[in-house]
Amino acid sequence: MSGREPQVGDMDPEAFRRWGREVVDWIAGYMATREHLPVLSRSRPGDLRSQLPGSPPEEGEDPAVWLEDFQELILPGVTHWNHPGFLAYFAISGSGPGVLGEMLAAALNVNGMLWRTSPAATELEEHVVGWLAQLLGLPGSLFGVIQDTASSSSFAALAAARHQAFPQVRAQGLTACAPGRVYASTEAHSSIEKAVIALGLGQAGLTRIPTDADFRMRPDALERAMAEDVARGIRPVAVVATLGTTSTTSLDPLAELLPIARRHGVWVHVDAAYGGAAAALPELRHHFKGWDEADSIVVNPHKWLFTPVDCSVLFTRRRELLRESLSLVPEYLRSNEEDETTQLMDYGLPLGRRFRALKLWFVLRHFGARGIRERLAYHLELGQRFAALVDDEPQWVRVAPVPFSTVVFRWAPDGVDRDLSALDEANRRIMDAVNARGQVFLSHTSLGERTCLRMSVGNLETRWRHLETGWAQLVEEAERVRREWTGGAQPPESQDPRKSPIP
Ligand SMILES: Cc1ncc(COP(=O)(O)O)c(C=O)c1O
To answer: Under a CB-based contact definition with an 8 Å cutoff, are residues 217 and 271 in contact?
Structure first.
């Protein structure tokens, strides 16, 4: 025996106060200077792990040591999503009020699975999703629940859709059911396919409906696919319409899809994970026509509503079906007030749930509805200005409309004798070269089998100068490739050949 007292208890509150101040100071400094960090991490595979000890420390270490390691070891391996030059995927913001909400939620560490396990967590969530519905022009009668991600929200929505189509599935599984089908466009997000797989319908259970020239689901093709399936004894389960697709932010023509889905009596789920935020702007509400009639809608405040990851809101008009499909209440989770209160564990796969409503509440209160609208409008303006830059440059082509703040484009120069796959490769090279410079980070997608580049505005600190920098670098890197290919010849005068879709 060493004679030493065994250690018990948490970090000393005074030590927490001291280090907490250091951390908050660090965060404030990071927010002020993040622009000067390379947005895309320059880490090589294995860099971090090769610097970490193989085992945890036997004796606890001083916060000064692990916080220094955070800066020295972790930071170089971070791709800065909260950087104004982050223009890849869908750009997002972990805003100041959102970060404060995360800190307090972590300190309280509540698990809001039941009303009684933290009444404020449940009631604030119910209230704040109602605020969000109002902000987006959705009916106050919708039931809303916060999930971690759109993937979980869509999974829960499609579980309810499956329950509606096959009420026996809960007890007996799919063996007792006809084959079921979910319909979504070829541009729908992979999370829909994952949900269909997880719900046991198999990849064959998802029919990908072709899109028109603007990447919107074709109603005629949906109609035909559903009719053919019904004739073959297949049971339609759900139609998923995307309002703001991942590649181009195209919007499926929901108002035309709804009557088709209704004729077959199937659930309509709207994936507005990214685009839904834009409904805060009354001038963009026309894009969302019909969504208030959908059975469920997912909108991610952690995408374009300035709330730190993770926060996804699932709205539904069919609360009872959602609950029936996923609720399971063992005795130890029963409570006296369960009939008069909401038990949020009933509306998704996980039992435990973080107090996510707090950060969303702080974000909505800090910026206010007007502040949110003005920030979104500014992002739209940046998107349009960037689109105009692309349109004015003869060697580049914009490949999709720009309803929001994401521009999809491609280098497609005249006068170079190269095939389309060489151009695909060149676009990747140009993007990689720009990303390696560190000031902006762009991503790519594939449309009509062609590689296209994407520029998405969504970070609160992004300004026009970041887009100008990105564009200047793209043009420079493209010119480098062109000179390499042509031995330095000047580009030909444009015949304005760029307006055709995806050359
Ligand atoms: C349209 C759409 N739906 C769903 C998702 C998945 O989002 P999450 O990461 O929240 O699951 C994305 C991600 O970008 C998306 O663009």
So the answer is: no
